[in-house]
Amino acid sequence: MNDLVSVINGMSPVQIEEKLNRAVALAQQQSIMGRRLGILVTRHSYYQFTVELHQDVAFGEIRERCIMHPARSTIRPHPNSV
Asked: Theoretical Cys-Cys bridge with 10: which of 16, 35, 75, 81, CB 3.0 to 4.6 Å?
C-alpha cells in the first residue's frame, strides 16, 4: 500500500527544492502517525516529482527514485535519511 502525499511541479531548482522540502516534511508527519511506511521521492521529469509513503521503504527512511529513464530506475537512500 502506498499513500501519495504530494505532486510537485516547478520551473526553477529553488522553487522545486522548497516544494519538495515542504512535501517531505508533511510526509514525515504522516509517516510518524502510521509508523509503518517510509518516504519515496520520485522524479518523473526535470520539473515533476511525487512524494509518497511507500511500502518498499522502511519506516524512518527517505529514498529517491528517478523514472525519467526507466531502464536505470533504482531506489536509493536520500542523503538526509536517518
From this structure: 16
Are the C-beta atoms of 16 and 47 separated by less than 8 Å?
Answer: yes
What are the strands of the beta sheet with 62-66, ordered from one edge? 3-9, 48-54, 38-43, 62-66, 75-77
Distance separating alpha carbons of residues 11 and 81, to the nearest angstrom: 26
In angstroms, rounded to a whole number, what is the distance separating the alpha carbons of residues 58 and 69?
24
Between strands 38-43 and 62-66, the pairing is parallel
What's residue 38's pLDDT? Answer: 95
Q: Which amino acid is at 29?
A: Q
What amino acid is encoded at 78 in this protein? H
Instruction: Tell me if residue 73 falls in helix, strand or coil.
Output: coil
Dist. CA 47–CA 59, nearest whole Å: 27
Domain ranges of the chain: 3-77
